[in-house]
Structures are given as C-alpha cells and as structure tokens.
Design goal:
The structure holds 2 protein chains of 2 kinds. Chain A is mostly beta strands. Chain A is built from 1 helix and 12 strands; from the N terminus they run E-E-E-E-E-E-E-E-E-E-E-E-H. Chain A has one domain. Chain A has a 12-stranded mixed beta sheet with strand order 7-8-9-10-11-1-2-3-4-5-6-12, covered by helices on one side. The radius of gyration of chain B is 38 Å and the shape is elongated. The termini of chain B are far apart. Chain B has a 32-stranded mixed beta sheet that branches. A 5-stranded mixed beta sheet of chain B has the order 10-11-16-17-15. In chain B, a hairpin with an 8-residue loop joins strand 44 and strand 45. Chain B contains 7 helices and 49 strands. The chains are: A mainly beta, B mainly beta. Chains A and B meet through strand 7, strand 10 and strand 11 of A and strand 3, strand 9, strand 16, strand 40 and strand 41 of B. Chain B: Keywords: Receptor. Chain B: InterPro entries: CarboxyPept-like_regulatory.
Chain lengths: ~220, ~900
C-alpha cells in the first residue's frame, strides 16, 4: 500500500513536504519517505540574507516489526547519518467518544506523549493498520492525521492507494555513518552551533536564554 | 501437534502468572486457510469501546488478555478483507479462549482514495493565515503571548519578532500601521482577546498594488480584529527615578485603543536622562522609504547655515545629551468606510539642552600660526509642533488614491557664554523651521503585472535665523568702530514635482521600470550681516549680504531594467536630465539649460552557494544647490564666514562599488569585503583666509578628487570553545586640493585606518561575555604630516540568573594617542539589573549609568589646518530605579 501524507513543519520557516508511507504487509515493514523539496518554500532566499536552512536531503524512516527495529536517515549540519533504534512503544490513550470525519472516513481520537511532545492522532478503523507517518505506530487503525499540541508539526493523509509494486528499501547502511539514537541526541542537540546571536555587533542587547531543543523529539525515554 | 504444544506452553505460563486475566488467542486466516499477517484484532466491550487491540504476527496468530468479565465483541479485520465480528462472553477469570477467524475477501475493488481535508492553517498566495483561537491555550495575556504560540514566529527576549531569521517590517492592525519598526509597543501591550486572525505577509510591499511586481523580501504581520469586539483602553507606563544623584527621572506612558473603526495611540515621555523620545516616533514623522515608487521629493530639504557649535563627542547619546525633554504624541486612524481611511498624527516636544565645551586649537598654515582657546557654555531651548494627515482612498480593487499632508514648526532659542581667548562673548541665536508638505499618489494596477503611479508633491520650507554677538572681534576685517554684530538670514525652499512611474514585471521575472517627471525647486536666500555700535547700525558691509533666488527645473526620464541570467543578475539604469537653471542675484539674472545623462550599470554574480559578488558603476552629474551658488559671505559661526561660487555648475564624478561575500550568515566562517572608489573630475573645494579672530571660506572648483574606502569583516565561530571571533578592517583615503591664505593649490591627503577584533561567547549557561577592541589611525598630510592612533576597548558581561532576573554590565575604555597631558584615558561602566515580577505585566529595573562618574571627556582632532583638543562635559553618574507596568 502507498499512503501519501502532507507534512507541515511549522518551524522557524514554515514549510510543507510530501511524505509517502509504503507498506509491505507480508514482511511487516514500512518505509516512510520525506520529500526533498519543500512544497511551499516560503521565504525567498536572497543574497546575503540570513538563512540557515540546511539543503535538504531525502530523509526516510524504515520500521521493521519483525526485527523490532527502526532506522532513519537524517542530516545534521553537513553530516548524513543513519540512526538506529528499537521501534518506540507509544502509550496511546484512546478516546472513542471523540470522533471526526476526515473526508468520508470516521476517525477516532488518540493522544500520547511521545518524546516530549503531546500529540493528537486521528485514526481510521477502515484501514486496520498499525502503521503511521514518521515514527508513529501502534494504533488500531491507520493514522490519518497527527499533530502536536503546539501545531509545530503536522502530518495528514492526502491519498491512499493500493499497489502491488515491490518496495525498494534503501540499503545505505554502509554509505553513511551509522549511530544509535543516544549518539544521535548528542549530535543533534549538544554539538550543534545553535546561537548565532554571538555574531551580532555590540549594543544589540541579546538576552539569550538557554537554547531549547526545537526538533520533533525533545525529550527521550532515558532522560525522564 | 505443533499447535497443541503451543497451547500447552501458553497454558503453563498462564497458570504460573499471579494476575487474574483472561487470555484470548487464535489465528486469522483467509478462506484459502493461509494466515493473514498484520491483521488487526480488537476487543470491544458492550459499549463498543475498544479495551484491547493487537495485530497478528507472521503466521496470522494473535493473543490478547483482559481482566474484565462480561460480554464482548471481538473483531478481526485486514486490508482487502471483509471484517468479521464474533461475540464472546467471559464468565470467569483465568479462562483461556481460542477464537479463530476466517475472513472473506472484499468484494469491492481497492481503489485509490484522495482525501479532501480542511487544513488548520490557510494559505492565500503569499499570506499565511493563522486562526487565533486555534493557537490559544488560555494563558495568553498580550499579543506577544499569542504570537509565541504560533510556531513559525520567533520572538526573542526583548520582543523582536522574526520569521526565520528575518525581522518583520511592521505589525498592522486590520491593515493599519501605527508603529512600523516600533511594533513592540503594540505586541507587548495589546490584549489578546480581540484578535481573530494572525496573518503572515510575505514578499510584502508598502504599496499593496506593487505586491509581486517590485522585488521585495520583506515580511510583515497583520492582526485582524473580531467584528463584535468591544474596544478597551490599554497601555503601559514606565516610571524611573534616580538616586545617588540630583533629580533624575524618566517617565513614559502609552495608551491605546483599537477598534474596527477607530484606532488611537497616545504616547508621552518626560526625561532628563539623555533619552531622545522623538526617536520613538521618528519613523512616523518621516517614514523611511528608500528608492520606492511614489517617494518623490523625499530628498528635498533646507539646510541652515549657522549653528552654535553644539557638537558632541562620539559617545552614547545618554552620556552626552544633557537634556530636559517633554514629549506628547497623539495618533489616530479612522476608517470612514471600506474604502476610505483617515490617519492623523500630532506631536509636541520641548527640550532644554545644555552644552559645555572647552577647546584649544593650534592653527598652523604656511607662516601663520596661532592658538585659540574657547570655553563654551550654551543652552538650547527647543519647541516643536508637528502634524500629519493621511488619507487613503481605494477607488477600486486596482486603484488607490493617497494624500499626505505635513506641517512642522520648530522654534529654537539658544544662547551661550563663550570665553574666546581673553574676550567674553555672548551669542544669541533664534532659529525657526516651518515646513508645509503635501503629497498625492495615485496607483493603478492596470494589468496583473503592470502598475502605473502618478505622484505629485509640494513642499514649502523656511528656516529663518537671527544671530547676534555682543562683542566685535573683526577689527581686521572691517574699519567700522563697531562693538557688536548681528546677522539675519532666511533660507526658503519651494519644491513642486510630478512623476509618472511605470513598473512592468515580465513573465520571466525581469523588471522594467520607466520614470518620467518634472521637478522644480526654487530657493530664496536672504542674509543681512550688520555691524552695530550698541543699538545703532553702523553698516551692512558690502560682500556680506545675499538676496538670491535660484530656480532649478529638472525634466527627466529614467529607465531601469533588471534581468537574470543563470547566476548573474544585471541591471542597467539610464537617467536623462534636461535642466533649466536660473539665478537671480540682487538684480542680475543668469540662466543655463544643460542636458546630461547619468548611466548606471550593476552586476550581481552568485559564483557558488558560498561566493557572492555584487558590483556597480555609475557616472554621476550633480547640479549645484543653493549653498553652492550664493555670492556674499554668510556668518556661519562666531568667527567664521563662508560663501559660494556665484555661478552654477554641474559636477561630474564616477564611482564604482564592489562587494564580495564568502559564506552564509549562519556558517562557521563568514567574510565580507566592500570596496568603494570614486573619482570626482571636478568638485567644490575651498579657498580660505584664516586669522586668529576670523576665517573666511569660499568655494572654488578644483579638478580631481579621489576617494577610496575599503571595509572588511570576518567571522569565525569556534565550536569547541563556543566563541565567535570577529576581525574588522577599514580604510578610507581621500586626496584633494584646496587653498589656504592665498597659497598655491595645496594637496591634502586624509588617511583613516581602523582595525579591531571582537570575541563573543555563546555559552548555554547563565554567563556570557563580549570583548572587543578597535584602533583608529588618522593621518592628515599636507606639507607636513600629522597622525595619531586612538583606541576603544570594551568588555560586556551578561548574567542570566533565570528567566526573571538578569544583569548586564558594560565597560568601556577610551585611549587617545598623542595627547601630551595625562588625561588620555577614560573609563566607563554601566550596569542594568532587571527583575520580571510578572511577564508582560510588571518589571523592575535598576540601571546605573556612568558609575565611574567620568565627568569630562577630551577629544583630539587634526585637520589640514589645525590640531585641536576639545573637552566636553558628560552626564554625571546616576542610578535609576525603574518600574514598568502594563494595564
């Protein structure tokens, strides 16, 4: 099966991307691809404009329920990384009293805190699948829409298709640096240069507060 | 057999468990008896509520547990199959149930489904609309609190709003702007409840019809108000009072009310701590619109000829501005109908500024050399009244008419006690400024990518000045036996201009602009210098009077084209000017009708993602202004006179600019270099006569002047130590010729070199520092060479104890080279502590200014004729206790 999502990163610079969730039901594996280009590249990049968007690479998440493993490809600064972890167990709270219709599908509400953010998911029992976009999984039906409470991140189904095509799972483990999730956190949050106020001329009053984690994942299991 | 073992194993495990649970297991199979992988199995209670769910593994098997009793529904479903439901009853705990499902294939073929869904955020071309209610979490007080919850918007600790790393241009309310860059006063004070939507406007244009046509990368925010919102007054106030010093205070209050139809904003400030409150509304008085369509006449103003020498050293405003100011400003916007908007702005400002200056000047030119000492104590009392009216009328969707009218009146009264060598002089200067300014702009977007603007403007500005000195020091110049002098002068300017502007954006993004217009400027300069004995006029000396009318009419066409080719952007501009100049001096009349072309060409080259270059070249012709052409001497200071050339001229110059950038701003390494070179084929220089008691300067035209300016900046961020290193280098050199005391044309070379470094930490903890030092070398070379080096070093600390409490300390050291006495070093320390009692509600601050109590500051200066030392009095030490409160 092939499910298309629209992803909205309502971050420092708003942008939208395409997400494609490919399912291999037989081997219980899924591949979630995140498009390279922004659908809506908001701010025109002018010469000399302060702009620190990383040139995007194709990111993806591979979830394997048989091996209980999850790989994702990320780019941090100029490093491309393959990060491995076990499939995160998300403790969903189902609330079947609250429903909403997304197009013709009746969807049920489920909420969970996953790695520091509170998410609301709407899943449909019309598609009895435990898969979802990005690292989300484990609901009784397909996740049709999911967003965090601050609306910073949003994933929503745009189309659902059926295909018999064999899925080409990327085999890039040897091409890039492979690290585990704990090393990734260190890379992502501890080593990044996250304060460019430091360049500003004197007299600009910068009252820099401790830079906060601003990615999708902000708090990890072992940190609790 | 295998199956039985499996059951047995589970059974055993089950029996050993201490929990009282019912286990249900089984297999989901297809009609072909194959296990269905990844099918869902849901256990629902009587209310159809899911109490447990699982998915089958790779043989189609599942297992689930429950501790509940009663009747349940068990549903198995899989993609491509019809779901199947089995009712079960669990009567006792610790039961093991085996339930298998056989699913039949779905009859309806699987088709692709495309979903039509509502998105929480709406897009309209370049506008992103956020519905305020969907982002509220209930604890928001001010607009800023709401904006913080909208993720794409970043707000830093002092309230600056950025989209990405770009600051917003303005924050409007229902499309009305009252604050421009001073929007913080709005976002930090306005309550959140009236806001309906927050609109993020990208590629923003100040003239809405130019949207998408002019090249803009501006960002702005617009807040729309709820229809039924009941208007309320809100605002804030800052009260500060000094201790450890004489009576120091700073009081500021703002009051606002925004409704659909009427919007009001009042601001008042009273202070004697050196703060210039008109700066807060300056952007409203003279909106800064550089090179924008419809900005005709923005560069027209009148300059005054005489000042009392109120120069201040190059230090922070609050160190040198010994003021006592009161300001009141009232602004409102009235929406008369959907199409008509009316804006008014008025302000009153009074200020009393004191100046204290002691200087020693050593002149040395040729065989003449002498020393002058001045001890100056002056006070200026200023009263300003300003009014502005704007009318905006949208004739249709594509047509807008705008009117803007301004009126300004400033009265300056200055007097000084000046001890000049051994004489005690009293100077009095009464100066006024009267401005009357009218502008109309009509915009028509007659095609989707073509805009046509007509703008017209009339300005009338007058600057009368009357100046008197109670002593007569010009015995060498005049034979009269006078004992005091007076000068009355008036410089009056009238400007009338009409301009037609067409912008045409081509399909490929190239932009063609054509401008055509006529601008007439008439200047009247009347000056009367008189010699008196007590109250009796002795003479109006010849050659010290002016009665001049200078009219300059400029008929022009300008064409600009900007096109892009791969990594290159090329723009060309040609301006054609036909001038009609007429000069009437007393009765004599001369005229001239020159024609000239000003070509300009520019090239931007994006060599690679990291290497960028911009360059431009232009050949300019500048028409002379009123201050270049007057023929009689005008007194410009207590001992100085100057005069113009008596005839008009167009001066030619070529200039070239090159800018090179390596890296992007956020990169670890970033460097920028800027080079400007200009060569004046002919230029206005001076011929001066300098004596101890007077100086007379007249303009002359001299060939060849060269100017070179280079500035370079380099940033390097060292990740390991979390510090940014910055190095700066600048050089400017100017070579020209002038005449002093009837010398030959003498060559003057000015060289100015500065270099410095800065290190700034980016620690994540509570402490950060910023240190830097800059050296400036000045050199003037005539027949002799003089040079000296100054240095300024600063060290700033910031302590962010927590979100509520922080301390900032700034220290500075100034060092002046080549000053013979000991007082060549100055130290300053300012500290500010801030405690937030309640965010956006109540804040206390303690700010200490000039804590080392450095009371005077001495500058060293060289020019081609003199070396001088000047000592200024500074704002003495004070400590202010401040309270900021929002209501």
């Amino acid at each position: 099966m092939k499910i298309n999502y629209i992803i909205k990163y309502n971050t420092e610079i708003y942008n939208e991307k395409n997400g494609i969730l490919l399912l291999d039901g037989k081997s219980q594996k899924s591949l979630f691809l995140i498009s390279t280009t922004n659908l809506k590249n908001q701010l025109p990049k002018e010469e000399n404009q302060i702009n620190v968007i990383q040139s995007e690479i194709e990111r993806y998440v591979i979830t394997d329920f048989v091996l209980d493993s999850l790989f994702f490809k990320e780019k941090i600064n100029s490093d491309v990384l393959i990060v491995s972890e076990n499939i995160p167990k998300i403790k969903w709270a189902l609330n079947q009293k609250i429903t909403k219709e997304i197009d013709q599908f009746l969807c049920y509400k489920a909420t969970a805190n996953f790695r520091g953010r509170n998410y609301t998911a709407w899943y449909s029992l019309d598609f009895p699948l435990q898969y979802g976009p990005w690292k989300f999984n484990g609901l009784p039906g397909l996740i049709m829409e999911i967003y965090d409470e601050t609306n910073r991140y949003y994933w929503g189904v745009t189309s659902i298709g059926f295909t018999d095509q064999k899925i080409d799972f990327p085999q890039e483990n040897n091409l890039y640096k492979k690290i585990d999730i704990k090393e990734y956190v260190d890379f992502r949050y501890e080593k990044i240069m996250d304060n460019i106020d430091i360049r500003l001329p004197r007299g600009t009053q910068t009252q820099t507060t401790k830079p906060s984690r601003n990615g999708i994942e902000i708090k990890f299991e072992w940190e609790e | 057999m295998g199956r039985i073992n499996y059951f047995l194993a589970l059974f055993l495990i089950f029996n050993f468990s201490i929990y009282s649970q019912t286990k249900i297991l089984g297999q989901v199979r297809s009609e072909l008896n194959e296990g269905i992988i990844s099918s869902s199995v849901l256990l629902k209670d009587g209310n159809n509520k899911i109490i447990f769910y699982t998915f089958t593994g790779n043989t189609g098997k599942y297992s689930l547990t429950t501790d509940k009793l009663g009747s349940f529904v068990l549903t198995a479903s899989a993609v491509g199959f019809e779901p199947k439901t089995i009712e079960i009853i669990i009567e006792k705990i610790n039961e093991l149930k085996t339930i298998d499902f056989i699913l039949s294939p779905k009859v309806i073929a699987l088709k692709e489904v495309i979903l039509e869904t509502k998105r929480p955020i709406t897009f309209k071309n370049d506008t992103i609309i956020f519905n305020a209610d969907s982002f509220k979490q209930g604890n928001e007080q001010t607009v800023e609190d709401l904006l913080k919850k909208i993720p794409g918007i970043n707000i830093d600790a002092n309230g600056t709003i950025k989209i990405g790393n770009q600051e917003v241009e303005k924050v409007m309310i229902d499309g009305d702007d009252m604050f421009e860059k001073g929007y913080k006063i709005l976002t930090k004070n306005m309550p959140v409840n009236p806001i309906e939507n927050v609109e993020l406007l990208q590629n923003y244009s100040n003239n809405k019809h130019l949207k998408g046509i002019e090249n803009s990368n501006k960002v702005a925010l617009n807040l729309t108000l709820k229809e039924d919102y009941k208007r309320a007054w809100f605002g804030n106030t800052t009260l500060a009072y000094g201790f450890l010093s004489e009576n120091r205070y700073d009081i500021k209050a703002s009051l606002m009310n925004f409704g659909k139809k009427y919007k009001y904003y009042f601001l008042t400030n009273l202070n004697n701590v050196g703060y210039d409150a008109t700066g807060d509304i300056n952007h409203l008085i003279r909106p800064y619109r550089f090179d924008e369509p419809g900005s005709i006449g923005d560069n027209q103003s009148v300059r005054t000829l005489l000042g009392l020498g109120y120069d201040t050293p190059n230090l922070k405003q609050r160190r040198v501005n010994l003021n006592n100011a009161e300001m009141l400003s009232l602004n409102s916007i009235f929406t008369l109908s959907d199409k008509i908007k009316f804006k008014t702005l008025g302000f009153l400002n009074t200020d009393e500024v004191d100046f204290f200056r002691k200087s020693l000047q050593s002149f040395s030119v040729g065989n003449t050399s002498f020393r002058n000492t001045e001890d100056f104590v002056g006070r200026k009392i200023q009263l300003t009244g300003f009014g502005k009216v704007d009318l905006n009328y949208d004739i249709s969707k594509t047509k807008t008419f705008e009117y803007s009218g301004k009126f300004n009146k400033t009265n300056d009264k200055s007097r000084s006690n000046l001890s000049f060598n051994n004489d005690l002089l009293n100077e009095r200067l009464n100066a006024n400024n009267q401005l009357f300014d009218q502008k109309v702009v009509f915009t028509n977007r007659f095609e989707n990518n073509k805009v046509f603007l007509i703008s017209g403007r009339y300005i009338n500005e007058k600057t009368p000045q009357s100046y008197s000195v109670n002593q007569f020091i010009f015995n060498e110049l005049f034979i009269e036996n006078a004992n005091n002098t007076k000068q009355f002068s008036e410089n009056k300017m009238q400007f009338a201009g009409v301009e037609v502007h067409l912008l045409d954006k081509k399909k490929n993004g190239d932009l063609l602009e054509i401008k055509m217009g006529n601008q007439l400027r008439i200047d009247d300069l009347n000056t009367r210098f008189e010699l008196l004995e007590n109250e009796i006029n002795l003479a109006f000396p010849n050659g010290y009077q002016n009665n001049l009318t200078y009219a300059s009419n400029d008929l022009y066409v300008s064409a600009k084209y900007r096109f892009k080719l791969k990594n290159f952007t090329l723009f060309t501009q040609s301006d054609f000017h036909q001038l009609f100049n007429e000069l009437k001096n007393f009765q004599a009349k001369v005229s001239q009708n020159p024609f000239f072309v000003v070509p300009k060409i520019g090239l931007d080259w994006k060599i690679s993602q990291k290497n960028k270059m911009t360059s431009s070249y232009s050949y300019n012709t500048t028409n002379s202004g009123i201050l270049d052409v007057y023929s009689g001497f005008v007194q410009t200071g207590f001992r100085s006179f100057s005069k113009g050339l008596e005839e008009f001229n167009q001066l030619n110059a070529s200039s070239a600019v090159l800018n090179y950038t390596y890296g992007n701003w956020g990169d670890k390494f970033f460097a920028n270099t800027f080079i400007l070179y200009s060569k004046n084929n002919d230029f206005f220089s001076s011929s001066s006569l300098i004596a101890q008691n007077f100086s007379q300067t007249e303009k002359i035209i001299v060939k060849d002047r060269e100017f070179l300016s280079v500035s370079s900046e380099l940033d390097y961020y060292v990740k390991k130590v979390k510090n940014n290193f910055k190095a700066k280098f600048g050089l400017s050199e100017i070579n020209f010729k002038n005449i002093v005391n009837n010398s030959e044309l003498r060559e003057v070379k000015n060289l100015n070199v500065d270099y410095g470094f800065e290190v700034r930490s980016g620690f994540k903890g509570f402490f950060n520092y910023h240190i830097g030092s800059k050296w400036t070398y000045n050199q003037v070379k005539t027949s002799v060479q003089n040079g000296f080096t100054n240095n300024m070093t600063f060290l700033d600390f910031s302590f962010m104890i927590n979100n509520k409490f922080n301390i900032q300390a700034q220290t500075e050291r100034y060092f002046f080279g080549d000053l013979d006495n000991k007082k060549s070093q100055y130290y300053f320390l300012d500290v500010e502590a801030r405690y937030v009692v309640k965010e956006n509600k109540l804040t206390f601050m303690l700010s200490g200014n000039n804590l080392f109590n450095t009371e005077t500051f001495r500058n060293y200066n060289i020019s081609d004729i003199s070396i001088s030392q000047t000592e200024y009095k500074l704002m003495p030490r004070y400590v202010l206790l401040k309270m900021e409160y929002r209501f």
